[in-house]
Every structure is written in C-alpha cells, then in structure tokens.
From TrEMBL, chain A:
CDD domains the UniProt entry points to: ATP-synt_Fo_a_6
Gene Ontology process terms (BP): proton motive force-driven plasma membrane ATP synthesis
Gene that this polypeptide is encoded by: atpB
Name of this chain's protein: ATP synthase subunit a
Membrane-spanning segments: 63-79, 118-136, 166-183, 203-225, 231-253, 260-285
Cross-referenced SUPFAM superfamilies: F1F0 ATP synthase subunit A
One GO CC term on file: plasma membrane
TrEMBL record, chain B:
HAMAP family on file: ATP_synth_b_bprime (MF_01398)
Claim: Transmembrane helix is one of the keywords in the record: yes
Intracellular or extracellular location(s): Cell membrane; Endomembrane system
InterPro entries tied to this protein: ATP_synth_B-like_membr_sf (IPR028987), ATP_synth_b/b'su_bac/chlpt (IPR002146), ATP_synth_F0_bsu_bac (IPR005864), ATP_synthase_B_chain (IPR050059)
Lineage start: Bacteria, Pseudomonadati, Pseudomonadota, Gammaproteobacteria, Cellvibrionales
Signal peptide range: none
GO CC, one annotated term: plasma membrane
Pfam families found in the cross-reference section: ATP-synt_B
Transmembrane segments: 6-26
Organism the protein comes from: Pseudohaliea rubra DSM 19751
Keyword Transferase appears in the UniProt entry: no
General function of this protein: F(1)F(0) ATP synthase produces ATP from ADP in the presence of a proton or sodium gradient. F-type ATPases consist of two structural domains, F(1) containing the extramembraneous catalytic core and F(0) containing the membrane proton channel, linked together by a central stalk and a peripheral stalk. During catalysis, ATP synthesis in the catalytic domain of F(1) is coupled via a rotary mechanism of the central stalk subunits to proton translocation.
Coiled coil (UniProt feature): 40-96
Protein name: ATP synthase subunit b
Gene: atpF
Principal location class: membrane
C-alpha cells in the first residue's frame, strides 16, 4: 500500500524503479548534494534520476538476482528430478517435471525439423525460466518490496521479465544462436540468403541486405518486446489495483475482486508468453537450419 | 527502463543455464523416460503374449479334459463289462459247485439210506425170527430157516 507520505504517482514510480548499482559519472550532483569525484563512483543509485545518469555502466541488482535465482532454482530442481527419474513409477513432483519435459519434447519434434540436440534443452530452459520469471508477477506487488524496504533496501522489482534488459538479454542470446547456426549450417549460403533475397539481382543487393538484416533483427526485437510489453502491462495493472486499495475503504471490495480476476487471467498470460517465447525461438532456429 | 549491463549479464546467464540444462537435465530425463516407455511397451507386449498363451493353454486343457472324459468313459465301460463277466463266471462256478455239493449230499444220503436199510434188514431178520418164534411157540432152527429169513429180509 502507498505510504502516508506518498502520492499515487510516487507509489507507482517507486514500484517501477529498479534497484540499480552502477557508476556515476564524475561531477554528478547526488541526491544529498555531494558531488561525485573524478573518475566516477560505483554506488547504489538513489532514485530513477541517478540510475538514468549511470547510463550503460549499471546493473539492475534486483532483476539480476531474481532472474539468476530463478534460473538456478530451475537448474537445481530439474537436475534433482532428473537424478530421481528412473524406469520405475514416477511420483509427485517428478510427474509434473516429466509432463513438462514430454510436452517440450513433443513441441520441439513438431516444430523443429533439423537434428540438433541443443534445441530441446534450450526450449525447456526458456520455457521454465521465463515462466518462473513471469510467475513472480503473481506475488502481491507490495509483499517483497515492502518487506525489503523495512530491511533497508530502497527499491525492488521482483518480476525480472518486466525489465527490458532481461527480455533483451534473452533474445540477444537467441539472436546469437540464430547467427551461429545459420553460419554453421549454411556457411556462405547464409550471406547469399541475406544478399540475394527477395530480389535475385546483383544490382539490388543493398536493398536486399537492408531488408534481410531488418528482418533478422526484427526477430529478437519482437521476442523481447512482446514478453516485456505483456509483463510490464500486467505488472502495471497489478500496481494500479494495489493503488486502488489506498483510495478508501469503499474501494476495498472492487479492488479485491479486480485483483483476483486479473490474477486468474494473468495465470493464462504468463504461461502463454513463456510458451510463445519458446515456440518462436524454436521456429527461428528451425529457419536458421533450413537451407534454401 | 534503462538499458545497461543487466542485458549482458542476462545473456551470459542464458547461455549458462542452457548449457547446464543440455548437460545435466535433459539427457538423463529423456533417457529415463524413453527407457520407461520401452519397458512399459515391453510389459504390455508380454501381457498380450501371456494372454494368448493362457488362451492356448485353456484350449489345451479343455481338449485334455475331453480326452480324459472319453478315456474314463471307456474304462468304466470296460470295467462294467468285466464285472458282468465276473458275475457270470461266479454264477457258473457257484452253480457247478452247488451241483457238486448237491450230488455229494445225495450220494451220502443214498449211502446212509442204504446203510440204514442194511441195518434194518439185518435186524428185521432177527426180529422176524423172534416174532415167528413167539407166534409158533417154538424155536425155529435158525439154520433150517436161514434161507427163508434171508429171502424175507431181501424183500424188505
């Protein structure tokens, strides 16, 4: 809930600010009036202005910690289940994990026509990891940030996939894989594909190159922006509903109903977004493997 | 909403997790699942086979039962035949034995009767002589009338 001294817009902005650790440029005047010394200084940003001033030399600590934590949780949990998997009767959590693995395996088989042992584990990692990151959206928006605020951590965004850095980080990984496999499978053919499509004439090579490169870059962009946009919008609505609670006692019931309704709907959204990210990654890599 | 080093950190983490998953999660998982699938398929096939075997065994058992029944019927019939035969034989033997016993008894009876008759005869001679003596009041010369007495005795 918004604190007594916070306005609604301050509340929202506070919720949308990452916990940032970065290098402030020399000569920057900090929130307390001090001036950053020559050579800059690595500090925790105090507020969005300082984070913006840090530019590229900064890390969103909260996004990074939650994202890595969830990734490590995924690896630990699935690895434990993989060790437990035997030819006997699967029980409990192993059943769920095997269901996911079976589902991914089938999806990859249906979508990816080449032969590459990396695609299925890649799809599994993307699906589960993105799903877990999205899942943080269902944690009540104030629970973790407020608790951590009491412990002295100023800002906290616990949904990594509402951070474009995270989604772009993923999609850049996918782009690198696309480039790697395109070159590995097609070799020089990849360059010809970029240069001689869609107009097969040497005079039009620059036009082709421009169109194909835009097309190529559009893939990671659409991947990252789709996930980011959906999760950011969903998170925003959760924050607005949470802000509604502070509007007065009479708003409690409608806000509660909205919260439940949106949360239920969001279960679908987070799963769907994770699935879309995974399927499109498979499709893009499948295209990278196809020689025309 | 700033693009910063988080981007690169995330991309590196992405490759790390994918590598880990490819190395330590996916292969054992899929291998275990495939092996189980194989095992289940084998189990089902074995069950099918067992079912077929059972059917065949049942058919065989039925056949054997029928054979056994036929055999048993044959044995019973033979036994019956043999029994009647035995009874007939026993009857014959019994009849023969009875005849023999009867004949022996008859012979004995005849013998006894003859002996009694002889005895009677010899006593009749004495009695008749005594009677005649009494009647005649005189003794009869046994020698003289021996012939007569013998004749009389023989007539008895």
């Amino acid at each position: 809930m918004a604190g007594e001294t916070q306005t609604v817009s301050e509340y929202i902005v506070h919720h949308l600010t990452n916990l940032t650790y970065g290098k402030l440029p020399a000569g920057y005047e900090r929130y307390d009036g001090s001036i950053v010394a020559d050579g800059g200084a690595w500090v925790m940003a105090h507020g969005g202005d300082e984070a913006a001033a840090m530019g590229f030399n900064a890390v969103h600590v909260d996004s990074m910690v939650w994202s890595l934590g969830l990734g490590i949780f995924f690896c630990w949990f699935f690895h434990r289940m993989a060790k437990r998997a035997s030819t006997g009767v699967p029980t409990g959590a192993l059943n769920a994990v095997e269901m996911i693995v079976g589902f991914i395996d089938k999806t990859v088989r249906d979508t990816f026509h080449g032969r590459n042992p990396m695609i299925a584990p890649l799809a599994l990692t993307i699906f589960v990891w993105v799903f877990l990151m999205n899942l943080m959206d269902l944690v009540p928006v104030d629970l973790v940030p407020h608790t951590l605020a009491l412990l002295g951590v100023e800002y906290q965004k616990i949904v990594p996939s509402t951070d474009p850095n995270i989604t772009f980080g993923l999609s850049i990984g996918v782009l690198l894989l696309i480039l790697y496999y395109s070159i590995k499978v097609k070799g020089f053919g990849f360059a010809r594909e970029l240069a001689m499509n869609p107009f097969n004439h040497w005079l039009l090579i620059p036009v082709n190159l421009f169109m194909e490169v835009v097309g190529l870059l559009a893939k990671p962009f659409s991947l990252a922006l789709r996930l980011f946009g959906n999760m950011y919008a969903g998170e925003m609505i959760f924050i607005l509903i949470a802000a509604l609670f502070s509007a007065g006692v009479m708003w409690m019931v409608p806000a509660g109903l909205l919260q439940i309704g949106w949360a239920i709907f969001h279960i679908l959204v987070i799963t769907l977004q994770a699935f879309i990210f995974m399927v499109l990654t498979i499709v893009y890599l499948s295209m990278a493997h196809e020689d025309h | 909403m700033n693009i910063n080093l988080t981007l690169i950190g995330q991309a590196i983490a992405f490759f790390g997790f994918v590598w880990f998953c490819m190395k330590f999660v996916w292969p054992p998982m899929v291998a275990a699942m495939a092996e189980r699938e194989h095992k289940i398929a084998e189990g089902l096939a074995a069950a099918d086979r067992a079912n077929r075997d059972l059917e065949i065994a049942q058919e065989k058992a039925l056949e054997r039962l029928k054979e056994a029944k036929q055999e048993a019927a044959g044995i019973v019939e033979a036994a019956n035949r043999r029994a009647t035969q035995l009874i007939e034989e026993a009857k014959d033997t019994a009849r023969l034995e009875a005849d023999r016993v009867k004949a022996a008894a008859q012979a004995e009876i005849d013998q006894e009767a003859n002996r009694a008759r002889e005895q009677l005869r010899s006593q009749v001679a004495v009695l008749s002589l005594a009677g005649a003596e009494k009647i005649l009041g005189a003794s009869i010369d046994r020698q003289a009338h021996a012939q007569l007495v013998d004749q009389l005795a023989a007539e008895l």
